[in-house]
Automatic annotation (TrEMBL):
Designated gene of the protein: LOC112227605
Domain PH: 20-127
Name by which UniProt lists this protein: Phosphoinositide phospholipase C
Organism: Oncorhynchus tshawytscha (Chinook salmon)
GO cellular component, one term: cytoplasm
Residues holding Ca(2+) 5: D698, Y699, D700
Length: 750
């Protein structure tokens, strides 16, 4: 029973790096300065699972899947290796970074060459697995489950092994049905061609047969004309005969059919599993929006207390948290800065038991990872609690480490009157914080001014540090060093004193931060005023201090009000983070999404609460049929007989008039190929602000349903027609073999 995950299936059968992994070897595992132990690591023959031994009294061998790896870093590039190893072992070190909250695996090889081979081999396997299309991933997953079910490795499947396999792929069957399956065999077990026949029965999809049969009019195959009719009538694409020919060329596997410009059912299914058949518009995977508008015209992916890996009271502070956020294209990160020992400023959540990390180490990590997934500007939001001397050192570290990428003066040769664009600021770092004077002082010929002075605390800092106001009701003040002040150019923090005051008294670069409750109240009671405020200013929203568990607030109502920097706790899996991932999935995952025109230009009277009518409101009707799901994961892998009872929820999150949820019935004991064929309709008032979120849950009549998978995207980024929907874990990582199959139609409302 051969797995199609073997080296030859990856095209790496003669690769020296991969051969080293398959043979395996001793690596030094590093947990702390005193805890360093040799462990034997080996890539299993399926090329998808890493095996390692445990040298405990009760020996326990362990494995992890290559799918669980987020990245591999060569050298002392993890916080653990930097802290617990010496510089002379740099070229022998590497780290395996896992998805979700799993701890990094820090390792030291016996030589630099061996470390290089481990890193290269793992990266090749990860890269090749990412290149598999969803149909190949599905086949790979099924064969892997078959291999695991074949306990005695005799390449046969007995009744017991067959039932074990079916439970692995999330299907519950009774003995009678399993015996019926075995009737295809004369020996009482499945082997050879019988397993292939059983596999074909397993992957048969009735819904694909129906769709294909409707359009295949040429000898039970789709001609190029049939395929074009399907693209035009079902997928609602602006397609030509050349487009249909191109799809056949790329996805048809049968050479004889390809020569006749025909598409077989297998080729059709292959096409539906590609990005052309995905729910998400492939054109939106790249930066497609105008990036030359002022930066305040964009929603900006933003993190709160970025340094924290866990809760706000005793959680771990780490450079890893910044790396994870930046690799998700977060473009605004927060740094809470306090005086540290030996004159070095530190970052942590002040007055709590959270651990501390050096300010300079955070700046180094930000410099290294800021522009790996997006080239557009990163805002460093400083919450400054430091004394003058350590503030000066903060400025020195940022200037020396970030170099020319740090914005230290306006881009223009004269006083600017509006923000530059993300395009203008590519690859640059912008500092947000307090400033001693107006920006026009940069262009003044007068004296350089004071070296230090007192300024009021940041609004968030004042709240979290329980600062008191003086007898005149003014917020407490801190001394600010000129060296740090001068680095604040386009994002000067000021207290919010009302929309009229901001309009009359504030410069465009002066921005306010709002606690979530205040911001939500303004959005609900003065939505149009808030939108107009954000047409010329930047607004940052942050979670309430009471969210000590690092929970999140709903960002949608703040986006509806045009707020750009809606900061969330990135470390906490939640619906709110699903929505954030969905909002910024579009525009090339750049971290910048252009706001709708009615949120950018004066003259519109749009209010998200009352929906004042205007030509900018282009209402839509959204029809969706939830057809089926494929290969949903088992939630309780420790219980062999635990099978999911899936149901699907479809949610719209947008303005209050659009926000709603509908769900299918649950299907009992079938997570492999459940079918619903249920249809829903949504009337959408403001499609430009609407997000569509799919949830697949395991139904439970006695307690809350468990999440199986989710996916979120902007309504304006979906494709019409028959589409596959990928499913993600609660952490936002792809579940390789799982998905939904739906039919969508987004039409102008009548």
């Amino acid at each position: 029973m051969e797995s199609n995950g073997k080296a030859e299936k990856h095209g790496l059968e003669r690769d020296a790096d991969l051969q080293l992994l398959l043979v395996g070897g001793e690596l030094l595992k590093v947990r702390s300065s005193s805890w360093k132990k040799n462990r034997f690591y080996k890539l299993q023959e399926d090329c998808t699972t890493m095996w390692h031994e445990s040298h405990r009294t009760f020996k326990r061998n362990q494995t992890f899947s290559i799918d669980e790896i987020e990245s591999v870093r060569k050298g002392r590039q993890s916080e653990g290796l930097q802290k617990h190893t010496e510089a002379h072992v740099e070229d022998r070190c590497f780290s395996i970074i896992f998805k979700g909250r799993r701890r990094n695996l820090d390792l030291i090889a016996t030589s630099a060459e061996e470390a290089r081979q481990w890193v290269n081999g793992l990266e090749k396997i990860i890269s090749n697995m990412k290149k598999l299309n969803s149909q190949q991933t599905s086949e790979h997953w099924i064969f892997n489950c078959m291999r695991k079910a074949d306990k005695n490795k005799d390449n046969k499947m007995t009744l017991k092994e067959l039932k074990h396999f079916l439970r692995q792929i999330n299907i519950e069957v009774d003995d009678m049905y399993a015996e019926v399956l075995l009737c295809y065999s004369n020996s009482g077990s499945l082997e050879g061609p019988e397993i292939k026949h059983f596999y074909d029965l397993l992957i048969y999809r009735e819904e694909i047969d129906v769709i294909y049969g409707k359009y295949a009019t040429t000898g039970e195959q789709m001609s190029v004309k049939d395929l074009l009719n399907f693209l035009l009538n079902e997928q609602r694409e602006v397609a030509t005969m050349e487009d249909a020919v191109s799809l056949i060329e790329r996805y048809e596997l049968d050479d004889s059919a390809k020569q006749k410009n025909h598409m077989t059912k297998d080729g059709f299914l292959m096409y539906l599993h590609q990005e052309e058949g995905s729910i998400f518009n492939p054109a939106h995977k790249e930066v497609f929006q105008d990036m030359s508008q002022p930066i305040n015209h964009y929603f900006i992916s933003s993190s709160h207390n970025t340094y924290l890996m866990e809760d706000q009271l005793k959680g771990h502070s780490s450079t890893e948290a910044y790396i994870k956020a930046l690799m998700k294209s977060c473009r605004c990160v927060e740094l809470d800065c306090w005086d540290g020992a030996h004159g070095e400023p530190i970052i942590y959540h002040g007055h709590t038991l959270t651990s501390k990390v050096l300010f300079k180490d955070v700046i180094k990590a930000i410099k290294e990872y800021a522009f790996k997934t997006s080239e557009y500007p990163v805002i460093l939001s400083l919450e400054n609690h430091c004394t003058l001397e350590q503030q000066k050192l903060m400025a020195k570290h940022m200037i020396s480490i970030l170099g020319s990428a740090l914005l230290t003066s306006p881009l223009e040769d004269q006083m600017p009157t509006a923000f530059p664009s993300p395009q203008d600021l590519k690859g640059r770092f912008i500092i947000k914080g307090k400033r001693l004077n107006k920006l026009d002082a940069v262009f003044s010929n007068t004296s350089p001014g004071v070296e230090e002075d007192c300024v009021s605390e940041e609004d968030e800092a004042a709240e979290t540090s329980n600062s008191k106001t003086d007898t005149n009701g003014q917020k407490s003040k801190i001394k600010l060093a000129k060296q740090l002040s001068d680095l604040v150019i386009y994002c000067k923090s000021v207290h919010f004193s009302g929309f009229e005051h901001a309009k009359d008294k504030q410069a465009f670069y002066e921005m306010s931060s709002f606690k979530e409750s205040k911001a939500v109240n303004l959005a609900e009671t003065a939505g149009n005023a808030f939108i107009h405020h954000n047409m010329t200013k930047l607004s940052r929203i942050y979670p309430a201090g009471s969210r000590t568990d690092s929970s999140n607030y709903n960002p949608v109502s703040l986006w509806n009000a045009g707020c750009q920097i809606v900061a969330l706790n990135f470390q906490t899996p939640s619906k709110e983070m699903d929505l954030n991932q969905g909002r910024f999935r579009s525009n090339g995952v750049s971290g910048y999404v252009l706001k709708p025109g009615f949120q950018r230009y004066p003259g519109t009277e749009f209010d998200p609460m009352t929906l004042t009518k205007g030509p900018w409101l282009k209402r839509k009707t959204f029809h969706i049929m939830v057809i089926s799901a494929q290969q949903l994961p088992k939630l309780n892998k420790d219980k062999c007989k635990s099978i999911v009872d899936p149901l699907v929820k479809v949610e719209i999150d947008g303005v209050p008039a659009d926000t709603c949820s509908k769900e299918t019935r649950s299907i009992e004991n079938n997570g492999f190929n459940p079918m619903w064929n249920e249809t829903f309709q949504f009337d959408i008032q403001v499609p430009e602000l609407a997000l569509v979120r799919f949830l697949v849950e395991d139904y439970d009549s006695t307690s809350q349903n468990d999440l199986i998978g989710q996916y979120c995207l902007p309504l304006t980024s979906l494709q019409n027609g028959y589409r596959h929907v990928p499913l993600l874990t609660k952490h936002g990582d792809v579940i390789p073999s799982a998905g939904l199959f739906v039919h969508l139609m987004l039409l102008d409302a009548k």
